[in-house]
Amino acid sequence: MNPQPPKPLPPEPPAHPPSGGPAPAPPGQESQSRALDALQELQSSQRSLPRGAALAWERAAFAAVFDHPEPGLRIRRFLEKA
Predict the structure, then answer these.
(1) Is residue 12 one of the residues assigned to a domain?
(2) Exposed, middle or buried, 20 (CB in 10 Å: 0-12/13-18/19+)?
C-alpha cells in the first residue's frame, strides 16, 4: 500500500469578513480547528501503516505546512524569533 501524504491545509479566511457577514472567530480558533481536523485525518490514515512509514508520512505532512504561503510564513517567522 502506497498512501499519499495528506492535502495541505486550506488558507484561513480573511480576518475581516465582508460587511453583513458573521463576526470573525477569535484569533487562532480557526487555525486550531483546521490543525485538529488535519491531525485526525492523518492519524486515521496511519493506523494501518508500519511505524516507520507512518512517521515518514507525518514528517511530510508537517513539512507541507511550510509550503503553504500564509501559515508557512507565520511559522517560519515564529521559528526565526525562537
Answers:
(1) no
(2) exposed
Q: Which three cell numbers stand for residue 53?
A: 512509514
Q: What whole-number distance in Å separates Cα of residue 74 and Cα of residue 80?
A: 10
Contacts of 8 (CB under 8 A, 6+ apart): 64, 65, 67, 68
pLDDT tens-digit series, residues 10-55: 655 555 555 555 555 555 666 677 777 877 887 787 788 888 888 8
Query: In the chain, how many domains are there?
Result: 1
Distance (Å, whole) CA 38 – CA 7: 9
- The reply to whether 57 falls in a domain is yes
- For residue 80, what is its C-alpha cell? 526565526
